[in-house]
Amino acid sequence: MFPRPIQQASAPAQTAYKTMLPIALILWLLPLIAVAIFSIKPATDFTQSNYWGVPGSFELFNNYGQVFFNSDMPRYMLNSVLITIPTVIGAVALSAMAGFALGVYKFRSNIWVFFMFVAGNFVPFQILMVPVRDLTLDLGLYNTKTGLVLFHIAFQTGFCTLFMRNFIRALPFPLIEAARVEGVAEWRIFWFVVLPLMKPALAALAVLIFTFIWNDYFWAIVLTQGPDAQPVTAGITSFNAQYRAAYHLMSAGSIVAALPPVLMFFLMQKHFIAGLTLGAVK
Fold first, then answer.
1. Beta-bridge partners for 245
2. In the CATH hierarchy, which fold is given to the domain comprising 72-276?
3. From 126's CA, which of 23, 108, 174, 202 has a CA 20 to 30 Å away?
């Protein structure tokens, strides 16, 4: 059922593994390496088709300086922060409560409510593009950070609830029964008994949702326009001029935009891995 550890494989298999692993890693990192190289090249290298050659000049400080000080990139970054943080808090909080209800309580429509949360994850966002955009226009939420936050929370709560419900069902139920025998209110059971046990799952889910929302491009261009509300993923395209694209600035902006999710993962790495692996072994 599970793959055999490489240490138990034959000598030729181990040699092939050790040879192919660095090659696969380089191929996987090649796009990121290319973007990093492009971010330090001058604009003339692209007009002269010098894509992979030695940079004509080292423009690290110039390119990144333009991104930070001569563009709306800081504003786009702030928009991403103001969109992502409330979305993570809202989606995780709602899913924790919904997961508690679906995982602990036994009621007749439990399975159908859970089915609705699961089924919503299989609806392609492209199908919802037109009605969601029309709804934001009708509600006066089009091109606002509030509208983007609300719809992100709505779209992410289904997956988050599925994650939380399965995690809560794996918790020791006798703890909840013991608290009920002692006469503890249900909301206190959730807050003081279940929620502390969910910290690894909350951390893992927060990292995942933070990455999903920060890197979202589809809804960013459907529901917002301009630097007043657009997040950084859509704002990077502002480096496209009328007749040519500033690839060196777009590359620098892409590197800047990719840093927060990476930092978020490394800061929460311990809790993230614990949340994903908790319950995998007894």
1. 240
2. MetI-like fold (1.10.3720)
3. 202
What's the first-to-final CA gap in the chain, in angstroms? Answer: 18
The rounded distance, in Å, linking the Cα atoms of 235 and 250 is 10
φ and ψ at residue 57, rounded to 5 degrees: -155, 155
One-letter identity of residue 93: A
Neighbouring CB atoms inside 10 A of 156's CB total: 24
pTM of the model: 0.84
User: Along the 282 residues of the chain, how does pLDDT read in single tens digits?
Assistant: 456 777 777 888 888 888 898 999 889 888 888 888 889 999 888 878 887 788 888 888 999 998 888 888 999 999 999 999 999 999 999 999 999 988 888 777 777 887 887 787 788 888 889 999 999 999 999 999 999 999 999 989 888 998 898 888 888 888 888 888 888 888 899 999 899 888 888 988 898 899 999 999 999 999 998 888 999 999 888 777 645 678 888 889 999 999 998 888 888 777 766 666 554 444
* Beta bridge mates, 102: none
List, in order, residues 6 or more apart from 77 with CB less than 8 Å away.
232, 256, 257, 260
Domain definitions of the chain by residue range: 6-68, 72-276
DSSP 53: S
CA distance 157 to 244: 40
Q: How far is CA 16 from CA 7, 29, 68, 111, 243, in A?
A: 13, 20, 45, 48, 48
Residue 112 CA: distances (Å) to CA of 85, 103, 108, 116, 160: 31, 13, 9, 6, 17
Task: State the Cα–Cα distance between residues 175 and 177, nearest whole angstrom.
Answer: 5
3-state secondary structure of 129: helix
Cα–Cα distance between 261 and 32 in angstroms, integer? 15
